[in-house]
Design goal:
alpha/beta; 5-stranded mixed beta sheet; 40% helix; Lysozyme-like
Length: 277
């Protein structure tokens, strides 16, 4: 009888241990790190300028704090594909300090949204990038990663969740329609995401980004060079071919680098739209 009781106890202990192990949340430690680091940043924000050092400058004896301020707000949304094989793989990547990459949101194929970073904080998603005169997109944008290996279509549930998220971000931060862009737009030499199957047309129809169809009434004058036109839109044209490819992937759903009359028409309309806002 004693042997049976001991055996039963061991079996129960094993069962409990198994349940606890199965229910262990794998990101508990990284969440603790997030909270700790956030507290450190909040501490910096709470510091008043009177205790901040201004080296070799004639600092006033008495500090006067302004009454007119708020938090900096994001002005761009940059959309990526993860180029990985699962949402779980991406979550793992974004919770390893050594990777030095992150995003505010990750959207899985089934539409599940992981909000990984407070929108007011700076994610490391854009890297070395440029859009117009903005050379620090990480400081002015929200990064959204879509679980996609870079070659496959985007799931309907995933796009539906993206549209819901974009609606919220646009309303909350008053992000201009034209400021919903892709990673390849801001880093044409390095990136191609989101891939050519991404539904930019659908997003533009909903008010997130701009889209123009070729129109014979509008064509880029021959006097305007293609690099100059692309720069007017916002592209970094240090590598003209890369900029052309990025433009055509986004606005023409085309992976070639040849500029056609239809491309010139779309370019011209993009420039006119930018000049009018």
């Amino acid at each position: 009888m004693l042997f049976i009781k001991k055996t039963s106890f061991i079996i129960c202990l094993i069962a409990i241990t198994t349940i606890v192990a199965c229910n262990h949340f794998p990101y508990a430690k990284t969440n603790q790190f997030y909270k700790k680091h956030t507290k450190e940043l909040v501490k910096l924000l709470k510091e008043d300028p009177s205790i901040q050092t201004i080296n070799q400058l004639p600092k006033a004896a008495d500090w006067v704090g302004t009454t007119n301020f708020d938090l900096r707000k994001p002005n761009f949304v940059v959309i990526h594909h993860t180029a990985q094989n699962s949402c779980e793989q991406t979550l793992k990547t974004f919770t390893l300090e050594r990777t030095k990459v992150s995003a505010h949101y990750v959207i899985c194929k089934d539409g599940t949204i992981h909000h990984m970073l407070n929108d007011y904080m700076r994610a490391w998603h854009g890297g070395i990038a440029k859009w117009g005169n903005n050379i620090d997109l990480n400081s002015s944008s929200i990064g959204i990663e879509l679980d996609n290996n870079g070659f496959e279509p985007f799931d309907t549930a995933q796009i539906n969740s993206l549209l819901l998220l974009l609606a919220q971000l646009k309303e909350t931060y008053k992000i201009p329609e034209a400021n919903f862009i892709g990673h390849a737009d801001i880093a044409p030499k390095r990136k191609v995401d989101p891939n050519i199957q991404f539904p930019w047309v659908l997003l533009a129809q909903k008010g997130y980004g701009v889209w123009f169809e070729p129109d014979a009434k509008y064509s880029l004058p021959e006097s305007i060079s293609i690099p100059f036109a692309l720069a007017m839109v916002g592209y970094d044209v240090k590598d003209t071919t890369a900029a052309i490819l990025a433009f055509k992937r986004h606005f023409r759903a085309d992976s070639t680098s040849v500029i056609t009359e239809n491309d010139r028409s779309v370019l011209y309309q993009l420039i006119q739209n930018k000049l009018s806002h």
